[in-house]
Write a structure and sequence with these properties.
The protein contains seven helices and five strands; from the N terminus they run βαβααβααβαβα. The chain is of the alpha/beta class. Helix 1 packs across helix 7. The protein is globular. The protein starts with 5 loop residues before the first strand and ends in a 9-residue tail after the last helix. The structure holds flavin mononucleotide. Flavin mononucleotide (FMN) binds next to helix 1.
Length: about 200
């Protein structure tokens, strides 16, 4: 692949919080490695929750017309996806979850309506998940990781790598953790390199 395209989705309600800062580092790392990155802040979009109309069973199209179609087209056209969401009650934020649920129209398309492979989806898609939580428990990220893994699966994407910051509560807490910021920048760089095929498939290898 010559120049991989990457989409970056900011899932926190805080514009300049911990996950936004981490994702910005990852974006900078990917751009530094030559990959164009399109950034989308979910809180700025008009996105209805899934209403379970299920008219997507006809053709895989969601009948709710809002900003979902634009995000879907971007996500389907990208080779790599960076998704950032803090932990809210042991899962992702409402902004992130609403988007995940709207992509159920794609799951319905692939599994029920039209199971032919989508020709515009590259087979080597990779996803990076960035998260942060205030506490430090061993199981802090378990719920989100399960949701994200299945979400990426719907997108024909592997959960390629994660950057998970514990003990981050106030908006600028991550600024005191250069290790997390460095890890995020490296993950962005390595994602761009892995998509281009000139880096080890496993991050940090
Ligand atoms: C509604 C809400 C629910 C939260 N739930 C959890 C939680 O279950 N576990 C936890 O460790 N932190 C929880 N937090 C704290 C956030 O995960 C933490 O402040 C994080 O750094 C926010 O990331 P951000 O700055 O990117 O928004 C919660 C915060 C809010 C506002």
């Amino acid at each position: 692949m010559d120049t991989p395209r990457i989409a970056a989705l900011y899932g926190s309600p805080r514009r300049n919080g911990n996950t936004a800062r981490l994702l910005r580092e990852a974006v900078a790392g990917a751009r530094g490695a030559g990959a164009p990155v399109e950034e989308i802040v979910l809180r700025d979009l008009k996105l209805s929750p899934c209403l379970e109309i299920y008219s997507c069973t006809q053709d895989g199209e969601c009948r709710i017309r809002d900003d979902f179609q634009r995000v879907r087209d971007l996500v389907l056209a990208c080779d790599g996806l960076m998704l950032a969401s803090p932990i809210f009650y042991y899962t992702v934020t409402a902004h992130t979850k609403i988007l995940m649920d709207r992509f159920h129209s794609l799951w319905v398309k692939k599994n029920w309506a039209d199971p032919r492979p989508n020709p515009i989806v590259s087979p080597r898609r990779k996803g990076l998940f960035i998260s942060a939580g205030a506490t430090r428990g061993k199981r802090l990220f378990e719920g989100s990781l399960l949701s994200v893994r299945y979400f990426f699966d719907t997108l024909d994407m592997d959960l390629w790598h994660t950057v998970l910051g514990r003990g981050l509560e106030y908006a600028d807490d991550v600024a005191k953790h250069p290790d997390y910021l460095e890890e995020a920048r490296r993950a962005g760089k390595e994602l761009a390199e892995a998509l281009r095929g000139d880096a080890p498939a496993a991050p940090g290898a």
